[in-house]
Protein backbone atom coordinates (compact mmCIF):
# COMPACT_ATOMS: atom_id res chain seq x y z
CA UNK A 1 0.00 0.00 0.00
CA UNK A 2 1.35 3.46 -0.90
CA UNK A 3 1.92 6.08 1.78
CA UNK A 4 -0.98 8.09 0.37
CA UNK A 5 -3.32 5.08 0.52
CA UNK A 6 -2.24 4.30 4.08
CA UNK A 7 -2.93 7.87 5.20
CA UNK A 8 -6.27 7.90 3.37
CA UNK A 9 -7.34 4.64 5.03
CA UNK A 10 -6.32 5.83 8.52
CA UNK A 11 -8.39 9.02 8.26
CA UNK A 12 -11.35 7.21 6.71
CA UNK A 13 -11.36 4.81 9.66
CA UNK A 14 -11.73 7.60 12.25
CA UNK A 15 -14.04 9.81 10.14
CA UNK A 16 -17.28 9.00 12.06
CA UNK A 17 -15.76 9.87 15.45
CA UNK A 18 -13.92 12.88 14.07
CA UNK A 19 -17.12 14.29 12.61
CA UNK A 20 -19.11 13.69 15.80
CA UNK A 21 -16.62 14.87 18.40
CA UNK A 22 -13.79 16.90 16.89
CA UNK A 23 -15.27 19.01 14.10
CA UNK A 24 -17.80 20.85 16.32
CA UNK A 25 -15.08 21.59 18.89
CA UNK A 26 -12.89 23.30 16.27
CA UNK A 27 -15.39 25.81 14.88
CA UNK A 28 -14.97 28.63 17.43
CA UNK A 29 -11.22 28.58 16.91
CA UNK A 30 -11.76 28.62 13.14
CA UNK A 31 -13.90 31.75 13.42
CA UNK A 32 -11.09 33.51 15.32
CA UNK A 33 -8.50 32.44 12.73
CA UNK A 34 -10.64 33.60 9.81
CA UNK A 35 -11.14 36.99 11.47
CA UNK A 36 -7.37 37.34 11.82
CA UNK A 37 -7.00 36.42 8.14
CA UNK A 38 -9.53 39.15 7.23
CA UNK A 39 -11.75 36.75 5.31
CA UNK A 40 -14.69 38.63 3.80
CA UNK A 41 -17.92 37.63 2.13
CA UNK A 42 -17.46 36.84 -1.55
CA UNK A 43 -13.79 35.86 -1.26
CA UNK A 44 -12.67 32.53 -2.69
CA UNK A 45 -11.17 30.30 0.00
CA UNK A 46 -9.47 26.91 -0.17
CA UNK A 47 -9.45 24.63 2.88
CA UNK A 48 -6.70 21.98 2.70
CA UNK A 49 -7.01 18.77 4.74
CA UNK A 50 -10.45 20.01 5.72
CA UNK A 51 -11.70 16.98 7.62
CA UNK A 52 -15.47 17.26 7.90
CA UNK A 53 -15.60 21.04 7.94
CA UNK A 54 -14.29 22.56 11.19
CA UNK A 55 -12.84 25.47 9.18
CA UNK A 56 -14.85 25.26 5.95
CA UNK A 57 -18.28 25.52 7.56
CA UNK A 58 -17.49 28.76 9.47
CA UNK A 59 -15.90 30.23 6.32
CA UNK A 60 -19.00 29.44 4.26
CA UNK A 61 -21.25 30.81 6.99
CA UNK A 62 -19.25 34.06 6.69
CA UNK A 63 -20.15 34.24 2.99
CA UNK A 64 -16.91 33.08 1.37
CA UNK A 65 -16.96 30.85 -1.71
CA UNK A 66 -15.26 27.79 -0.24
CA UNK A 67 -13.63 24.74 -1.78
CA UNK A 68 -12.76 22.12 0.84
CA UNK A 69 -10.31 19.33 0.04
CA UNK A 70 -9.37 16.22 1.97
CA UNK A 71 -7.58 12.97 1.18
CA UNK A 72 -10.37 10.88 2.77
CA UNK A 73 -13.59 10.32 0.77
CA UNK A 74 -15.41 9.60 4.05
CA UNK A 75 -14.43 13.01 5.43
CA UNK A 76 -15.56 14.72 2.22
CA UNK A 77 -18.92 12.92 2.37
CA UNK A 78 -19.49 14.07 5.94
CA UNK A 79 -18.46 17.62 5.10
CA UNK A 80 -20.90 17.68 2.20
CA UNK A 81 -23.64 16.38 4.52
CA UNK A 82 -22.96 19.22 6.97
CA UNK A 83 -23.10 21.76 4.15
CA UNK A 84 -26.44 20.36 2.95
CA UNK A 85 -27.90 20.43 6.45
CA UNK A 86 -27.07 24.14 6.73
CA UNK A 87 -28.03 25.00 3.15
CA UNK A 88 -24.50 26.26 2.40
CA UNK A 89 -24.59 26.27 -1.40
CA UNK A 90 -21.32 28.30 -1.41
CA UNK A 91 -19.33 25.32 -0.08
CA UNK A 92 -18.02 22.57 -2.35
CA UNK A 93 -15.74 19.66 -1.50
CA UNK A 94 -13.35 17.38 -3.40
CA UNK A 95 -11.17 14.41 -2.53
CA UNK A 96 -7.61 15.62 -3.05
CA UNK A 97 -4.08 15.12 -1.76
CA UNK A 98 -2.97 18.39 -0.17
CA UNK A 99 0.62 17.68 -1.17
CA UNK A 100 -0.39 17.66 -4.87
CA UNK A 101 -3.38 19.95 -5.36
CA UNK A 102 -5.21 19.44 -8.65
CA UNK A 103 -5.93 23.16 -8.89
CA UNK A 104 -4.80 26.09 -11.03
CA UNK A 105 -2.20 28.61 -9.89
CA UNK A 106 -3.33 31.97 -8.45
CA UNK A 107 -6.95 30.94 -7.84
CA UNK A 108 -7.87 31.72 -4.22
CA UNK A 109 -7.94 34.85 -2.08
CA UNK A 110 -7.22 32.75 1.00
CA UNK A 111 -5.77 29.23 1.32
CA UNK A 112 -6.08 27.85 4.84
CA UNK A 113 -5.60 24.71 6.89
CA UNK A 114 -6.58 24.09 10.50
CA UNK A 115 -4.85 21.12 12.18
CA UNK A 116 -4.34 19.63 8.71
CA UNK A 117 -1.15 20.55 6.87
CA UNK A 118 0.67 20.46 10.24
CA UNK A 119 0.26 16.64 9.99
CA UNK A 120 1.74 16.28 6.51
CA UNK A 121 4.85 14.11 6.22
CA UNK A 122 6.12 16.74 3.75
CA UNK A 123 4.85 19.95 5.33
CA UNK A 124 6.96 22.27 3.12
CA UNK A 125 5.42 20.70 0.03
CA UNK A 126 1.92 21.20 1.44
CA UNK A 127 2.65 24.86 2.19
CA UNK A 128 4.19 25.33 -1.24
CA UNK A 129 1.03 23.97 -2.86
CA UNK A 130 -1.17 26.28 -0.77
CA UNK A 131 0.98 29.23 -1.82
CA UNK A 132 0.94 28.22 -5.48
CA UNK A 133 -2.86 28.28 -5.73
CA UNK A 134 -3.21 31.56 -3.82
CA UNK A 135 -3.59 34.79 -5.80
CA UNK A 136 -0.79 37.36 -5.57
CA UNK A 137 -1.66 39.51 -2.57
CA UNK A 138 -3.77 36.71 -1.09
CA UNK A 139 -3.16 35.08 2.27
CA UNK A 140 -2.08 31.64 3.43
CA UNK A 141 -3.27 30.61 6.89
CA UNK A 142 -2.03 27.73 9.02
CA UNK A 143 -3.53 26.84 12.41
CA UNK A 144 -1.30 24.43 14.33
CA UNK A 145 -0.89 22.92 17.77
CA UNK A 146 1.34 24.80 20.21
CA UNK A 147 4.09 23.16 22.29
CA UNK A 148 3.03 19.85 23.91
CA UNK A 149 3.66 21.29 27.39
CA UNK A 150 1.00 23.94 26.69
CA UNK A 151 -1.64 21.52 25.39
CA UNK A 152 -3.71 20.54 28.41
CA UNK A 153 -5.82 17.84 26.78
CA UNK A 154 -2.67 15.92 25.93
CA UNK A 155 -1.28 16.11 29.47
CA UNK A 156 -4.63 15.06 30.96
CA UNK A 157 -5.00 12.14 28.58
CA UNK A 158 -1.47 10.78 28.86
CA UNK A 159 -1.49 11.22 32.64
CA UNK A 160 -4.74 9.30 33.02
CA UNK A 161 -3.57 6.42 30.84
CA UNK A 162 -0.27 6.21 32.74
CA UNK A 163 -2.18 6.13 36.06
CA UNK A 164 -4.15 3.13 34.81
CA UNK A 165 -1.28 1.51 32.87
CA UNK A 166 2.05 2.43 34.50
CA UNK A 167 4.06 0.86 31.68
CA UNK A 168 2.36 3.11 29.08
CA UNK A 169 5.09 4.99 27.18
CA UNK A 170 3.02 7.82 25.70
CA UNK A 171 4.32 9.81 22.73
CA UNK A 172 7.88 10.00 21.44
CA UNK A 173 9.56 13.37 21.92
CA UNK A 174 12.63 13.21 19.67
CA UNK A 175 11.63 13.80 16.99
CA UNK A 176 8.20 15.04 18.07
CA UNK A 177 5.12 13.47 16.43
CA UNK A 178 3.88 15.17 13.25
CA UNK A 179 1.13 17.20 15.03
CA UNK A 180 3.90 19.12 16.82
CA UNK A 181 6.40 19.62 13.99
CA UNK A 182 5.59 23.37 13.84
CA UNK A 183 4.46 23.83 17.44
CA UNK A 184 7.30 26.33 17.99
CA UNK A 185 6.02 29.68 16.61
CA UNK A 186 9.47 30.51 15.24
CA UNK A 187 9.67 27.26 13.28
CA UNK A 188 6.20 27.96 11.86
CA UNK A 189 7.35 31.45 10.89
CA UNK A 190 10.39 29.99 9.12
CA UNK A 191 8.25 27.50 7.18
CA UNK A 192 5.91 30.27 6.01
CA UNK A 193 8.90 32.34 4.90
CA UNK A 194 10.49 29.37 3.11
CA UNK A 195 7.23 28.99 1.16
CA UNK A 196 7.84 32.47 -0.27
CA UNK A 197 5.32 34.35 1.87
CA UNK A 198 5.83 37.86 3.24
CA UNK A 199 4.22 40.06 5.90
CA UNK A 200 4.18 37.00 8.16
CA UNK A 201 2.36 37.05 11.50
CA UNK A 202 2.33 34.17 13.95
CA UNK A 203 -0.02 34.69 16.88
CA UNK A 204 -0.73 32.45 19.84
CA UNK A 205 -4.35 31.71 20.70
CA UNK A 206 -6.23 29.49 23.14
CA UNK A 207 -8.20 26.50 21.92
CA UNK A 208 -10.78 26.02 24.66
CA UNK A 209 -12.13 22.49 24.99
CA UNK A 210 -14.91 21.29 27.31
CA UNK A 211 -15.36 17.70 28.44
CA UNK A 212 -18.25 16.26 30.46
CA UNK A 213 -16.74 12.84 31.14
CA UNK A 214 -13.71 10.64 30.74
CA UNK A 215 -15.52 8.62 28.07
CA UNK A 216 -16.30 11.73 26.04
CA UNK A 217 -12.70 12.90 26.24
CA UNK A 218 -11.41 9.43 25.33
CA UNK A 219 -13.65 9.42 22.24
CA UNK A 220 -12.47 12.91 21.29
CA UNK A 221 -8.74 12.18 21.61
CA UNK A 222 -8.85 8.80 19.85
CA UNK A 223 -10.84 10.33 16.96
CA UNK A 224 -8.77 13.52 16.70
CA UNK A 225 -6.18 11.98 14.38
CA UNK A 226 -4.82 8.50 13.64
CA UNK A 227 -1.99 8.97 16.13
CA UNK A 228 -4.51 9.30 18.97
CA UNK A 229 -6.15 5.99 18.08
CA UNK A 230 -2.84 4.23 17.45
CA UNK A 231 -1.40 5.37 20.78
CA UNK A 232 -3.86 3.24 22.78
CA UNK A 233 -4.59 0.51 20.23
CA UNK A 234 -2.71 -2.15 22.21
CA UNK A 235 -4.49 -1.55 25.52
CA UNK A 236 -6.95 -4.17 26.73
CA UNK A 237 -10.63 -3.37 27.30
CA UNK A 238 -9.95 -3.40 31.06
CA UNK A 239 -7.03 -0.98 30.70
CA UNK A 240 -9.09 1.37 28.53
CA UNK A 241 -11.91 1.34 31.11
CA UNK A 242 -9.46 2.07 33.90
CA UNK A 243 -7.93 4.94 31.92
CA UNK A 244 -11.37 6.46 31.27
CA UNK A 245 -12.13 6.24 35.00
CA UNK A 246 -8.86 8.02 35.76
CA UNK A 247 -9.82 10.67 33.20
CA UNK A 248 -13.19 11.06 34.93
CA UNK A 249 -11.42 11.75 38.21
CA UNK A 250 -9.04 14.31 36.68
CA UNK A 251 -11.87 16.11 34.87
CA UNK A 252 -14.04 16.17 38.00
CA UNK A 253 -11.16 17.66 39.94
CA UNK A 254 -10.73 20.37 37.29
CA UNK A 255 -14.45 21.23 37.14
CA UNK A 256 -14.94 21.19 40.90
CA UNK A 257 -17.55 18.47 40.48
CA UNK A 258 -20.11 20.51 38.55
CA UNK A 259 -20.41 21.21 34.84
CA UNK A 260 -17.88 20.42 32.15
CA UNK A 261 -14.14 20.60 32.73
CA UNK A 262 -12.47 23.33 30.66
CA UNK A 263 -9.04 22.57 29.23
CA UNK A 264 -6.91 25.28 27.64
CA UNK A 265 -4.64 24.48 24.72
CA UNK A 266 -2.08 26.70 23.03
CA UNK A 267 -2.35 26.99 19.25
CA UNK A 268 -0.45 29.00 16.64
CA UNK A 269 -2.18 30.97 13.91
CA UNK A 270 0.32 31.72 11.16
CA UNK A 271 -0.61 34.08 8.32
CA UNK A 272 1.49 35.12 5.35
CA UNK A 273 0.87 37.09 2.16
CA UNK A 274 1.82 35.88 -1.31
UniProtKB/TrEMBL annotation:
SUPFAM superfamilies from the UniProt entry: S-adenosyl-L-methionine-dependent methyltransferases
**Keywords annotated in UniProt:** Methyltransferase, Plasmid, Transferase
GO terms of molecular function: S-adenosylmethionine-dependent methyltransferase activity
- Any one GO biological process: methylation
Q: Where is the Methyltransferase type domain?
A: 46-142
Q: Which CDD domains match?
A: AdoMet_MTases (cd02440)
Region Disordered, annotated ranges: 251-274
Please give the Gene3D superfamilies that the UniProt record associates with this protein. Vaccinia Virus protein VP39 (3.40.50.150)
* Stored PANTHER family: 2-METHOXY-6-POLYPRENYL-1,4-BENZOQUINOL METHYLASE, MITOCHONDRIAL (PTHR43591:SF24), METHYLTRANSFERASE (PTHR43591)
Would you tell me the protein name for this molecule? Methyltransferase type 11
Amino acid sequence: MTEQATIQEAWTEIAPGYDEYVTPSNMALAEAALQRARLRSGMRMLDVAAGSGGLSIPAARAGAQVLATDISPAMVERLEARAREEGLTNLGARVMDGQALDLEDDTFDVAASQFGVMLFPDLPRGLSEMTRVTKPGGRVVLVTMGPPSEVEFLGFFLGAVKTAVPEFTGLPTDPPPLPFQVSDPEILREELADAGLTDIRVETANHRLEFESGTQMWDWVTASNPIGAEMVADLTAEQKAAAQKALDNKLRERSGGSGPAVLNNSVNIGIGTK
